[in-house]
Automatic annotation (TrEMBL), chains A, B:
Protein family according to the UniProt entry: Belongs to the GST superfamily. Tau family.
Lineage of the organism: Eukaryota, Viridiplantae, Streptophyta, Embryophyta, Tracheophyta
Known catalytic reactions: RX + glutathione = an S-substituted glutathione + a halide anion + H(+)
Keywords: Transferase
PANTHER family named in the record: GLUTATHIONE S-TRANSFERASE U17, GLUTATHIONE S-TRANSFERASE, GST, SUPERFAMILY, GST DOMAIN CONTAINING
Spans through the membrane: none
Pfam families, alphabetized: GST_C (PF00043), GST_N (PF02798)
GO process terms (BP): glutathione metabolic process; toxin catabolic process
Enzyme class, spelled out: transferase
Name the record gives this protein: glutathione transferase
EC number assigned by the record: 2.5.1.18
C-alpha cells in the first residue's frame, strides 16, 4: 500500500484522471492531499521541474504529468481491475492520445479562459472555442464508440478518463456563468456520454460532487477577478 | 510502399522525429513534401484540427502529432530495424515521455523565443531558459544513459529521437546568434551525446545538413523580424 502514493487533490482534473484510473484498476494507494496554493516539500522534491500536481510515487520513484502517469499505471497493472485502459488497436490508441493532447492543449485552456475572461466579448469567444472543441469531440466519439456507451466502446478507456475528468467542471461553468457548452441539441452523443461517465461506479467513487466543484470554481473565479483587477491597477 | 506516407518536410524538427524513427525502423514510406507557408489540400483534409505537419498516413488513415505518430510506428513495427524505440522498462518509458513533454512544452518554445526576441534582454532571458533546460536534460541523460552513449543506453531510444531532432537547430542558433546553449563545459554529457546523435547512421540518412538548416533559420529569423516590425507599426 505505502508503495503507491499520489500527491494531489481530486479538485484538480489532472489528479482526478489518475484517481479514476486507479479506481478502474482497483489499485490501492495513499492519497497525499496537497492544499491549493501551497506546495509541500514532497511535491517540490518530487516534481522539481514543474512543481505541480499530480505526482505519482511508485516504489519511491516519482512520475509526473497526468498523461505519463496514466500510461505508466496502465503498463504496470495491465490486467488489474478493468484491464487495459489504452485500446488494443494501435490506430485507436493513436486517436485516444491525439484527442487527449487536444483536450489539454486547447479545450481545457479555453474552459479556463471562460472563467478568466475580463470582458463579455472575451467570454463569448472562449465559449465559442469550447463549443467548437466539443463538436470535434462529438465526431470523434461517434467514430470511436461505434454506437456504444463510451469512447472505449462498452467500457471506459483512455480518452474517457482523460476528457471525462472535466465533465463536472463543464457543468459548473455552464451553470455558474450561464453559458451553454455541452448541450443535448448540438452534441447529443457527447451529452449522453457525459451523463453515463458521471454515473460510472469507478468514477463516482472518486469524483468530487458538483457542489464541491462549484464551491471551488467560485473560489477560483473570485481569485481570477481579483488578479485581473490587480493587474489593471 | 504507398500504404505508408508522411506529409511534411525534414526542416521541421517535428517531422524529422518521424523520419528518424522510420529510418531506425527501416520502414519504407513516401514523403509528401509540404512547402513552408503553403498547406496542401491533403494536409488540410488529413489534419483538420491543427492543419500542421507532420501527418502520418497508414492504410489511408491519418495520424497527427509527432509524439503520437512515433508511438504508433513503434507499436505497429515493434521488431523492425532497430526494434522498440520506447524502453522496455515502464519507469524508463515514463521518464522518456516526461522529458519529451518538457522539450515540447518548454525547451523548443524557448529556443524559438531566442530567434524571435525583439530586445537584447528578451534574448538573454530566452537563452537562460534554454541553458537551464539543458542542465535538467544533462541530469536526465546521466540517469537514463547509465554511462552509455544515448538516452536509450547503447542504442537510440524515444527521447534520443524526440530531443535529438533539435540538435542541428541548437547549433545554428548558437552560431548565427552568437550564444552558448549546449557547451561542453556546462553540459559535457549532453554535448557528447549531441555529437554522437548527429553521427548516427539512421540520423545522418534523413537529417538536413547544417548549411540547409542555417539557411532556413536565417529565413525564419528575417520573417520574425519583419513580423515584429509590422506589429509595431
Amino acid at each position: 500500500m505505502a508503495d503507491v502514493k499520489l500527491i494531489g487533490s481530486p479538485l484538480s482534473p489532472y489528479v482526478l484522471r489518475v484517481m479514476i484510473t486507479l479506481s478502474l484498476k482497483k489499485v490501492e494507494y495513499e492519497l497525499l492531499q496537497e492544499k491549493f496554493g501551497e506546495k509541500s516539500e514532497l511535491l517540490l522534491k518530487s516534481n522539481p521541474v514543474y512543481k505541480k500536481i499530480p505526482v505519482f510515487i511508485h516504489h519511491d520513484r516519482p512520475i509526473c504529468e497526468s498523461a505519463v502517469i496514466v500510461e505508466y499505471i496502465d503498463e504496470v497493472w495491465p490486467e488489474s481491475g478493468c484491464g487495459a485502459i489504452l485500446p488494443a488497436d494501435a490506430y485507436h490508441r493513436a486517436l485516444h492520445r491525439f484527442w487527449t493532447f487536444y483536450v489539454d492543449d486547447k479545450l481545457f485552456p479555453s474552459l479556463v479562459a471562460i472563467g478568466r475572461a475580463a470582458t463579455a466579448e472575451g467570454k463569448a469567444e472562449a465559449v465559442e472555442r469550447v463549443r467548437a472543441g466539443h463538436l470535434l469531440l462529438e465526431e470523434a466519439f461517434v467514430e470511436l464508440s461505434e454506437g456504444k456507451a463510451f469512447f472505449g466502446g462498452d467500457r471506459l478507456a483512455y480518452l474517457d478518463v482523460m476528457f471525462g475528468c472535466f465533465v463536472n467542471w463543464i457543468k459548473e461553468v455552464e451553470e455558474f456563468l450561464s453559458v451553454e457548452l455541452l448541450d443535448e441539441a448540438t452534441t447529443p452523443a457527447l451529452h449522453g456520454w457525459a451523463a453515463r461517465f458521471r454515473e460510472h461506479e469507478a468514477v463516482k467513487e472518486v469524483m468530487p460532487d458538483r457542489g464541491t466543484v462549484l464551491e471551488f470554481f467560485k473560489f477560483l473565479h473570485a481569485m481570477w477577478a481579483k488578479e485581473a483587477a490587480d493587474a489593471k491597477n
